[in-house]
Amino acid sequence: MSEITLNSGNFEKEVLNSPIPVLVDFWAVWCGPCRAVAPVIEELAKEYEGKIKVGKVNVDENNELASRYGVMSIPTMKYFKDGKIVNEIIGAAPKAQFEEAIKKLV
What does pTM read for this prediction? Predict the structure, then answer.
């Protein structure tokens, strides 16, 4: 399954009501750092498939979600568990940092 494209229509079902933790990547096409971390996030989605869900929110197409969750700069990774934000990483970071946050969830 790897990554899910999230929007206001499926966010509640896929993230807030998810039985497993969810890593949400808030990004945009024009964002260089977003493109830099995208392969890492995709890799983590495959490595942790079944343990976590990974979703992507394009902030240009879903600015109401970005606003609702206080996303001021991108990329922003928000980690959800039981419908609540439990961690976040703002900006491009090494794989180990994203993975450490995932390990705290599973």
Answer: 0.95
